[in-house]
Amino acid sequence: MTLEVAVKRVYEAPAKTDGQRVLVDRLWPRGVSKKDAELTLWLKEIAPSDELRQWFGHDPERWAEFQKRYRAELDANSEALAQLRGVMRDGKVTLLYGAHDEAHNNAVALAAYLRAHS
Fold it and tell me: Which of 4, 46, 57, 91 is the most buried (most CB within 10 A)?
């Protein structure tokens, strides 16, 4: 099975090429209606813990350590990973996030984790 996973800001318009749209943030993004988001699933349980998210604060200098700590949280979160992998069996998945930084966010880290553990 080829893993098809993309990453996209939830503020970008939905596209047919997105496949299954999964929001992977713990908090609902400001200014986005549930209707406009066109989600397949809001999987807040797979997001980083509040403690880790607040420690990281989207500081690029903490990115490497954030990824390491988040991977450890994911390793211990088999239930949420199983739920996401279930959605992924149906084809392409786009992981959605609300952060401004497109390179340093939990969806990017989660996509890398999934690719490494597929």
Answer: 46
